[in-house]
Specification:
Layout (H helix, E strand, L loop, with lengths): L1 E5 L3 H12 L3 E5 L15 E2 L12 H9 L6 E3 L5 H12 L3 H15 L2 H10 L6 E2 L3 E5 L2 H8 L2 H6 L5 E4 L2 H5 L9 E5 L3 E3 L1 H14 L3 E3 L6 E5 L2 E7 L2 E4 L2 E4 L5 H7 L7 E10 L9 E4 L4 E6 L2 E10 L8 H9 L18 E7 L6 E4 L6 E5 L5 H16 L37
Parallel strand pairs: 1-2, 1-14, 2-10, 4-18, 6-16, 14-21
Antiparallel strand pairs: 3-9, 5-9, 6-8, 7-8, 11-12, 12-13, 15-18, 15-19, 16-17, 17-18, 20-21
Helix pairs in contact: 1-9, 1-12
The chain binds flavin-adenine dinucleotide.
The site of flavin-adenine dinucleotide has 47 residues, from helix 1, strand 15, strand 19 and helix 12.
């Protein structure tokens, strides 16, 4: 069976790996060099404990407050464009406790075996940097701590063993934190990895397994006979296959549109900044929960990540928001000196969906095309489990029930006929 995958981020590569390892002939296409999308610009956290969907109780009020600040962690560009308005209204409708908890449970079921799958990758010779020292959520505001403690029963039911740390107990878990914080929650089993090393390791292993990775091949057309897709095209180049999967990150909706199914995936831009050498030694990754900043310690460097911007499909860096990320740790870390510049700031686009849950499964109206996208803030955490389950579906080995909540059908009322050629710009940061 020959399978063509569009997108060489973590979702495309892990799927390619699970298929190739089971004997399929796989070709992965990327519009530019692989490893430039969100999969290279993330905090690297593998955190089932944080796998809640973005829409949740309290988000509407918080976003209205944040909208007024240029340096806030959340920005929603005002726009009357119908798809933007529909997306935001649908997201706000999901900001309730019932949808939040059911989405959280669906995510937890999808990533329950992530750590085992990552260990399996390593056993199979995929080299990547991985650290297993747990996750500390640190809180300045008592109210925010209580808000998170409220849902700990969900994490407990999945064996994540949260420990609530009151007041200065937080410094015992992470001595770099300053005194006077409201408290924290420590999750001992969480790990983080260097996602650039994971995608590089996957690419290398895929080549050993005989898969092909074709870069600078922006897919711009789909050929189908009835409901069967026979090839995708990039300009003059034609890539035929028996099955096709779209894993194009924030661009996924655009690409599934070429298949006649434009899914509602929009970019949620964020930034990562590497500070080299690390200005502070952390034992573990830390979530500065009120400031919405992730601190990830790697050998010889510290990565700061944050911000969610619902705006354009571009990877431009906003200096004001980057400066806010650099200042953020001052309220949490003892003796933090804010760096004056950030030469290594990078932007990445999280693929966001209106209900905060990924879209995984067969594209309605097609017999042999699939999608794996919309993993939002959780592509590293949910990616390995997603790909293992979707590979089963593509290879016709059954339909794992844990995929049911993520069906593309929830966003598709009617299938459009495949449109004529829709060009997608070729290379560079702007796709
Ligand atoms: C700042 C930040 C921090 C994050 N932190 C975490 C974290 O700690 N933990 C976690 O789990 N997740 C995190 N995420 C989210 C995670 O990075 C994403 O969910 C994940 O990387 C999405 O992977 P992807 O493969 O879907 O998309 P991408 O990595 O964006 O890959 C999509 C690929 O598709 C290609 N493409 C697009 N259009 C076409 C086309 N027409 N033809 C061919 N190829 C095309 C692109 O070039 C790109 O390479 C973070 C994200 C950001 C931005």
């Amino acid at each position: 069976m020959r399978i063509v995958i569009v997108g060489a981020g973590v979702l495309g590569l892990t799927l390619a790996y699970d298929l190739a390892r089971q004997g399929a002939e796989v070709e992965v296409l990327d519009a530019r060099e692989s490893g430039l999308g969100a999969s290279a610009v993330n905090a690297g956290w593998v955190v089932p404990s944080e796998a809640a969907p973005v829409p949740g109780p309290g988000l509407i009020l918080k976003s209205l407050k944040w909208m007024a600040r240029k340096d806030s962690p959340l920005y929603i560009r005002p726009s009357v464009e119908p798809s933007h308005v529909r997306f935001m209204l649908s997201m706000w409708r999901r900001c309730n406790a019932r949808d939040f908890r059911s989405g959280f449970q669906a995510h937890l079921a999808l990533c329950e075996s992530t750590n085992d799958i990552l260990d399996d990758y390593a056993r199979d010779g995929i080299a990547f940097d991985s650290y297993a020292q747990g996750l500390l959520m640190a809180f300045q505001a008592r109210e925010n701590l209580h808000h998170h403690v409220h849902d700990l029963d969900v994490q407990r039911s999945y064996g994540l063993d949260p420990e609530v740390l009151q007041g200065d107990a937080i410094q015992q878990a992470e001595p770099a934190m300053r005194s006077g914080l409201a408290g924290g929650i420590f999750f001992p089993h969480e790990r983080h990895l260097d996602s650039a090393s994971l995608t590089a390791g996957l690419r290398e292993r895929l080549r050993e397994l005989g898969a092909t990775i074709t870069e600078h091949a922006p897919v711009d057309r789909v050929e189908r006979i009835g409901d069967t897709v026979v090839a995708v095209r990039s300009g003059d180049r034609r890539f035929a296959g028996d099955a096709f999967a779209v894993a194009a990150g924030a661009w996924t909706g655009r690409v599934t549109g070429l298949f006649g199914v434009p899914l509602p995936i929009r970019p949620g831009k964020g930034y990562s900044i590497d500070l080299v050498p690390a200005p502070v030694h952390l034992r573990t990754m830390v979530n500065l929960s009120d400031a919405k900043i992730a601190m990830t310690p790697y050998a010889g460097r510290l990565r700061l990540s944050g911000t969610m911007e619902f705006a354009g499909l571009d990877e431009d860096v906003n200096g004001t928001r980057v400066a806010a990320i650099l200042r953020g740790p001052a309220g949490y870390v003892d003796g933090w000196v804010t760096p004056q510049s950030a030469p290594q700031a990078k932007a990445g686009m999280r693929p966001m969906t209106p209900d905060g849950m990924p879209i995984i499964g067969r594209l309605p109206g097609t017999a042999n095309a699939y999608v794996s996208g919309g993993h939002g803030m959780l592509g590293i955490t949910l990616g390995p489990g997603t790909s293992r389950a979707l590979a089963e579906v593509i290879l016709g080995r059954g339909y794992p029930p844990r995929l049911l909540p993520f069906s593309p059908g929830r966003f598709v009322r009617k299938v459009r006929p495949t449109p004529a050629l829709t060009p997608v710009p070729a290379t560079g940061a702007r796709l």
